[in-house]
Structures are given as structure tokens and as C-alpha cells.
Task: structure prediction
Amino acid sequence: MTQSFDVLVIGSGIAGLSFALDVARRGRSVAILTKKDKADSSTNWAQGGLAAVTATTDDFAAHVHDTLAAGDGLCDPKVVRAIVRDGPACVRELAEWGVRFSRDPRGGYELGREGGHGARRILHAKDMTGRVIEEALLKAIAREPRIALFEHYFAIDVITRRKLSRRVPRGGDRVLGVHALDVRDGRVLTFRAPVVMLATGGAGQVYLYTTNPDIATGDGVAMAWRAGVEVRNMEFIQFHPTALYSTTGRRFLISEALRGEGAVLRNLQGEAFMRGVHPLADLAPRDIVARAIDAEMKKSGAAHVWLDITHRNAAWLRRRFPQIFAACRAAGLNLAHDLIPVVPAAHYVCGGVATTIAAETSLPGLYACGEVACTGLHGANRLASNSLLEAVVMARRGAESVDRYLRTATRTPLIAIPGWEDLGGGDTDERVVIAHNWDELRRTMWDYVGIMRTTKRLERARQRITNLARETQDYYWNFSVDARLLELRNVIEVAGLIVNCALQRKESRGLHAISDHPRKLRMVRDSRLRRT
Ligand code: FAD
Ligand code: SIN
Result:
């Protein structure tokens, strides 16, 4: 069965939903495909907030400066200026769609502060910013008749002219649609459209310990890569310094906004160790804080460090951080009295599908925005709360450029797209191997491609990933596909891209710290990969 639309959006987080609203407003028919429930996204879990210049005491130059400093020399300054400048207009648009950020007693925005920011500029909804954004955008989507939302549809791959006929030269390639698995009944359907927007989010699930939800399996990066699109700077994986330590392996985020309100990191001897590390101490950029925690833990053999916000009383903490207060309570901890055990965990992919500042990829008709994309904003380390900002700004810019593309692109004759060929079945007992391969991949990435790297460990990881890729490809061809197998294929693809970019970079910069190359090179360059 084939369905046709002007635009397909893959993903229902802030990037996909706000793009869909903007493009539908321009009269386009839109389908959003999302692989689980519609609110299942990293967006829904975002805590700290969205960075934008809204205070009269703040200015664009200061936000640009902080973003460039956090990015450690690798940001594209033109992109940084453009995204920061678009911030306030996008905040107004979010408000029009019903997003309500926390206000101070005088009616202005209550602004938070986070690592690397020289000023209070984080708009937030207590510590549930993402949930408030996701709910408002989903309500706005439900009111828009031009948008159809397909839950539990897993986009497998982008269909392009070149995939259908190898005679099409790379320069003549363009998007025709996607194949998607209806997760509930196992059928693979064809969705046809001249434009596909990848808004599939991040890839934290590549690592054993992550703050990310289960959906974060890097599907968009893997799809773009398989379609021959350039992927950039994948070695820059951000480890959030403060996830709640638990022996179950879950890593609930303890927002950096706590340190913005004076929380202090302490080692097991009670020393506030960030003071000697960076002038901003506990509010240093994330790469620096995560590395300092890692070093403290290695030095003492401790399983965690402490976060201390006991200078605030329970009533204040419950009002400002209700979700975190409750999560700590459930773990038997009282934020107002107890030190909180925290550890770093994989949090954000700074690299991704290479795009222009108009969200275009190198393949006509394929666009990307949000965490899946690499615009040049984050460089070697993302500044806190710049992710939600980038997602909403790039969604808006993407809608403008998609509209232009649809008005001007030459119409291709309707090419027949063959249906999905299910090679069928496979031995169900063998499916347990898929679970084992998941575990092996995530453990390998955590052990060999973590906060501190060496060339030897990266090479070991590459070897294992190559074996896992070969084995998984075999399953892909011989089994009926299901979501878990498709995700495994994607996380393996993304892990390979992370390791290959890491091996390309012969220096330590931002989030990529490698002991064989401890210094920064004078020549600054992006790592770029493209499938030949
Ligand atoms: P997501 O919100 O992750 O949405 C991706 C969507 O794509 C999902 O709907 C998913 O189901 C769908 N999808 C994926 N693959 C497929 C597929 N193959 N087929 C169909 N659908 C698919 N950033 C900030 O700026 N401020 C914060 O305070 C902040 N806090 C955070 C807290 C946590 C715990 C986490 C995990 C992240 C946080 N971040 C924060 C990062 C930020 O939340 C994300 O980078 C951002 O929400 C990504 O938005 P997105 O729309 O790109 O992707
Ligand atoms: C946090 O609240 O600490 C997360 C913010 C972010 O990822 O930008």
C-alpha cells in the first residue's frame, strides 16, 4: 500500500512537530511518522530549558560568545550568530502554539542558568520544560487538518532514484519517499513524497549508560548515511556530568540547572573539586566537568561523586525542581538534606547529518533538523540548552527552504516504487542473538569509546563493531524485520561512524579527549564521512 504527501516528517519531538506546523501553515500536506507513542522523544524528557536572549540585561553577542567558547574552536560562527538571533522569534512562535514557560513574580520569564553561560538566559517550565513543549505542540498538531500523525510507524530507509536504478548518477539523485514498518502488524508500507525531513533525534542508546530514552538509536543518521549523505563530527558525544547513580543501570538526569542555583560537586572526601579546575568552577562547560568527574572517580576508585544542593530548603527545591525532587525521593534521597550520588552518562550527539543553515542535506529533497543534524552550532561541545533552541530555529528555517524547494524543483515523472520484499521468517530461536549483540555493542562503546580515549581502544572497538555489523546484516537479509532488529542495525552503523570520526581526529578538542594526541591542532577542521 502506498500513501502520498507533499512532505514526510520522521519523528515527533520538538524538531519534527514544529517543522510540521510551520510547513503545514504554508499549505502543504504533511505526514509525521513516529516509531512509538507520539510523545516518546528526548524532547519529552528535557529538563533545564531552552537558551535564548530575552532579558534586557542579556545580548546576542554574549550568547554567541558563550556558544563559541563551549564549542572549543569548532563552531561555525556564521551559523552560531544566525541561530542565536532567530531565538527570540522562535520563543514567540512556541508561545503562539501554547508553550508556557515559568514566569517570575513580575510577569517576566524566570530565567535559569547552566554550565558555560555567563548570564541567566534559560527559559524553562520548572524542571519539565520538554514535557510542556511536547504537550503544547501535540495539541497544536491535533488542530491542524493538513497534518496526519502515524504512531508506531518505523521509518526504515529513504527511497531515492539512485536506489531504484544504479544508472542514476549521484548528481541526479533525489528523494522519493520512505519505507516504513507498521510496528503493530509487521507490514512494510511505502510513503511517497518529494521531501523527507529527518527529525529522529539522538543516539544515546549506543552507550550502555545514557540519559536518553529508548527511542534514541540514531536511526536518522544511519538512514542518511545509507542514502550516501555526508555525516559530520560524530566523535563529539556529550556526556552529561550529572546523572543519578543507580545500580540498576538507569541514568535519570539531574539537571545542570541545579548547579545554576548553586549546587556543588564534591568528591567522596567532601572536597568541592571543580574550584581548581576552571574559573567557572561547577558551571564550566560540560566536557570539562564530565572529564573532571571521570578523573576524580578513577583517582579514588569511587563509583560516583556527590552533588550538594543542601543550602536550599525543601519547599524551594520542590517548587523549582518538582520532578527531580520526586525522582530523588523515590530513590530514598532528600535533595534538601542528602548529598546526591551522580555520574556522567552519554547525553547528546553534537555531530550528525551535515546540513546547511537551511536544513538541506547533500541529497535533494532530504532535510534534517534537531539533534540528528549537524549544522555547525555546537562545534566540539554543545552549550547547555542550545539543543532545544537549535531544533526549533532549524525547523522554522527548514520549513522555509522546503517551501522554496517544492515551488521550484522540477517535477520528476512518477517513478514506480517496488513494494518491500519480505524474505521472511528466520529461526525465532536465533532472535536472542539480537539481544546479545545489543549488549555487546553498548558495552564496547562504553568501555572503549567513552570520555577518555586511546587509539588502541578505538581500534579494538572498530574491530568488534565490524564483526557485529556483519552478523547483524545477515539477520537483516534473512529475517522478517522488526523494530529491535532495525534499531540494532542503526546503532551499529552509528557506532561505526563515531569510531571512524574519532580515529580521524589526531588531537584532543572539546568532547574528544584522546591520550595519544593530548594537544589541540592549530588547523581546525570538521571530520566528514560519506559512503562511497
Ligand atoms: P527527539 O525529541 O528525540 O524526537 C525524535 C523523534 O523521532 C521521536 O519521536 C522518535 O520516536 C522518532 N524516531 C526516531 N527514529 C525513528 C524512526 N526510524 N522512525 C520513526 N520515528 C523515529 N536539551 C536542551 O536544549 N535543554 C534541556 O533542558 C535538555 N534536557 C535534556 C534532558 C534529557 C533527559 C535528555 C535525554 C535530553 C535533553 N536535552 C536538552 C537534549 C534535547 O532534549 C534533545 O536534543 C532534543 O529534544 C531533540 O529533539 P528532536 O526533536 O531532535 O528529537
Ligand atoms: C540539563 O537540564 O542539564 C540538560 C540541559 C541540556 O542538555 O542542554
Remarks:
- The chain has three domains: 2-47+128-235+350-409, 242-345, 429-519.
- The first strand starts at residue 2 and ends at 4.
- The first helix runs from residue 14 to 24.
